[in-house]
């Protein structure tokens, strides 16, 4: 049977991992600054995380939400503590797309409205309503098309003001990534996030912060919207929430009261997923990873800017992007094949850095040295080619 093609893949078989290192089936070691697309938050196979899962697996791996599952409450309590939102409600599911799907559905239930505001270059998932709020027609099937989603320019307060003057009373929610990942590490300004909060409060719409990729400590604060000093009505989470174990969730403000049966899930909040999620939060707290992400991210941005080869170095914490000039268009490939370093990308020419929150300063310096080597090799090749008759 042929496997369904999901993404273009590198012909590398990763068989072992630890911290910020992975090894392929040939024994080659790689430095991982991609984290499987921002999923690895506390490092590969962190011992505490592994122990949490092993202990739970020996007891029970799964039962449905038809019974009481105490570890769900333990996860909720720890999440409330680490995120600073103990008064919010937690609904557990399995992925980021599910989180956004349920958040948008809940907003419509709560407000009785249909209109959704999303933003240009947004990515919120590939399921029905989440993909309708994703600004990529290539992945929106005819069945997903809806007139209820409006895409506004990112960071354009005038456009936001104009929209709410006309449609505020009909709007169920505004959904935004405070740092767009697939969109190319585009960072929302504090004033823009504050404007969204103000318009939602005044109109009765809900503010949905899509923190699937940029949240869970990646920016140096637990939620990236925290930098703007605003509270969302619903936070969506996944990726780093399980450090590789499939788990997602939404945090729901206390003024929103879902009814029984309004939202549901079979696998969401199962024992094993909660053990993985609890292990992640315990490590984040014990190792002070929010502070580490903020400090190491600032150091990495400063060093990248000082190199002088890259355009528009930006981001917060350990969610960093920069644009490649034409001579360096093959930088990511060179880093992977010659320097054995994984990085991410966004179209057309953005390098995305999404390392584990506990990457060490020594590993960052190792990456920077390799990056300088790749830049030198590629610019030398480009110069030699331009000199050819």
From TrEMBL:
Pfam families (alphabetical): Aminotran_3
Molecular functions (GO terms): transaminase activity
UniProt entry keywords in alphabetical sequence: Aminotransferase, Pyridoxal phosphate, Transferase
Secretion signal, residue range per the UniProt entry: none
Highest rank taxon of the organism: Bacteria
Cofactors that this protein relies on: pyridoxal 5'-phosphate
Gene3D superfamilies named among the record's database cross-references: Aspartate Aminotransferase, domain 1, Type I PLP-dependent aspartate aminotransferase-like (Major domain)
Keyword Repeat carried by entry: no
PROSITE patterns: AA_TRANSFER_CLASS_3
Sequence similarity: Belongs to the class-III pyridoxal-phosphate-dependent aminotransferase family.
Record protein name field: Aminotransferase class III-fold pyridoxal phosphate-dependent enzyme
């Amino acid at each position: 049977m042929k496997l369904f093609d999901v993404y273009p893949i590198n012909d590398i078989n990763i068989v072992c991992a630890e911290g910020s290192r992975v090894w392929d089936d040939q024994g080659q070691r790689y430095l991982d600054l991609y984290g499987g697309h921002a999923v690895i938050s506390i490092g590969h196979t962190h011992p505490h995380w592994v122990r949490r899962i092993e202990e739970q697996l020996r007891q029970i791996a799964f039962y449905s939400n038809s019974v009481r599952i105490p570890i769900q409450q333990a996860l909720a309590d720890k999440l409330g503590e680490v995120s600073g939102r103990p008064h919010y409600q937690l609904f557990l599911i399995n992925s980021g797309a599910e989180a956004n799907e349920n958040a948008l559905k809940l907003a419509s239930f709560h407000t009785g409205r249909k209109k959704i505001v999303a933003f240009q270059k947004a990515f919120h998932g590939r399921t029905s309503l989440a993909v309708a709020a994703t600004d990529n027609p290539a992945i929106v099937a005819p069945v997903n098309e809806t007139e209820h989603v409006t895409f506004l320019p990112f960071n354009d307060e005038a456009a936001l003001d104009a929209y709410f003057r006309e449609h505020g009373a009909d709007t169920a929610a505004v959904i935004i990534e405070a740092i767009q990942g697939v969109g190319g590490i585009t960072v929302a300004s504090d004033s823009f996030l504050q404007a969204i909060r103000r318009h939602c409060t005044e109109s009765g719409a809900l503010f949905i912060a899509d923190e699937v990729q940029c949240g869970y400590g990646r920016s140096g604060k637990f939620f990236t919207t925290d930098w703007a000093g605003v509270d969302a009505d619903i936070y969506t989470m996944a990726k780093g929430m399980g450090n590789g174990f499939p788990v997602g969730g939404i945090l729901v403000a206390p003024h929103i009261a879902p009814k029984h049966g309004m939202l549901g899930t079979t696998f969401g909040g199962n024992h094993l997923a909660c053990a993985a999620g609890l292990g992640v939060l315990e490590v984040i707290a014990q190792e002070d990873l929010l502070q580490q992400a903020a400090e190491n991210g600032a150091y990495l941005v400063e060093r990248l800017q000082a190199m002088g080869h890259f355009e528009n170095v930006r981001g917060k914490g350990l969610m960093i992007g920069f644009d490649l000039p034409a001579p360096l268009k093959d930088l990511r490939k060179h880093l992977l094949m010659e320097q054995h370093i994984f990085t991410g990308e966004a179209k057309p020419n953005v390098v995305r850095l999404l390392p584990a929150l506990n990457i060490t300063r020594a590993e960052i310096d190792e990456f920077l040295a390799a990056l300088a080597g790749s830049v030198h090799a590629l610019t030398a090749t480009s110069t030699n080619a331009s000199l050819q008759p």
